[in-house]
Amino acid sequence: MTAATKTATALSLESVTLTFPDGDRRLTALDEVSLAVAPGELVAVVGPSGSGKSSLLAVASVLLRPDAGRVVLAGRDTAGMPDRERTRLRREQVGIVFQQSNLLPSLTAVEQLLAVEHLRGGSVRGARARAEELLESVGLGEAGRRRRPHRLSGGERQRVNIARALFTGPSVLLVDEPTSALDHERGEQVVELLAGVTRRHRTATVLVTHDRGLLGRADRVLTMRDGRLG
Ligand code: ADP
Ligand code: MG
């Protein structure tokens, strides 16, 4: 993905409502949520547990279809899009980082990234230099890049996750509570890194956290409460 194809608003949610079945009623997880994020912008979303933060990311990543409203990703309106196309769009345009590092235990840091290329049917040989470079850029040195997850620290594992999320050159980066398993200092470093990555890779980044202490690096801070974003 080249910078030229990144549109002014990389991610846009327009009046999105998402409900889940809840006994014989429905629970409203997102209540007419609107949000637009530009390339190179870091938006933080805070809010209590159960307020809808992860639901917001699930809809933004076009993993879940909203009941109402529109999600526009990398200039593409996903509302009427068939599932196959939505999946492809997600793979190409969305990088996702979760709270728990979901790295494969048997692979080294470099191989975690190469596995992405392999799954896409790309050339692993051609991808190696790029994988090494990305890991270097998130602060993982030569030795760390050869280690499997159990020999990396929690902070280093999150760095690998971030590098892996960036590997396809996504226009949108969605990050769900990336610091909850880390101490405050390591958490700050990860947020610092995400801010830098957002600038350098021009991603539209949404960072969900319940830790208000980490918000200094965000361009905007929004609060989620009972499925409403304000
Ligand atoms: P947060 O990430 O802020 O903790 P969530 O988005 O996970 O909030 O949840 C918002 C609301 O939606 C909660 O009431 C939660 O119980 C409900 N919810 C989330 N996912 C599901 C699901 N798959 N099925 C049913 N209810 C869900
Ligand atoms: Mg959550």
From TrEMBL:
Boundaries of every ABC transporter domain copy: 11-229
Gene3D superfamilies named among the record's database cross-references: P-loop containing nucleotide triphosphate hydrolases
Family matches, as SUPFAM superfamilies: P-loop containing nucleoside triphosphate hydrolases (SSF52540)
Iron listed as a keyword: no
GO molecular function: ATP binding; ATP hydrolysis activity; transmembrane transporter activity
Protein name: Putative ABC transport system ATP-binding protein
Taxonomic lineage from the root: Bacteria, Bacillati, Actinomycetota, Actinomycetes, Kitasatosporales
Species whose genome carries this gene: Streptomyces olivoverticillatus
Keywords for this protein: ATP-binding, Nucleotide-binding, Transport
Database matches in InterPro entries: AAA+_ATPase, ABC_transporter-like_ATP-bd, ABC_transporter-like_CS, ABC_transpr_LolD-like, MacB-like_ATP-bd, P-loop_NTPase
GO cellular component: plasma membrane
Superkingdom, taxonomy of origin: Bacteria
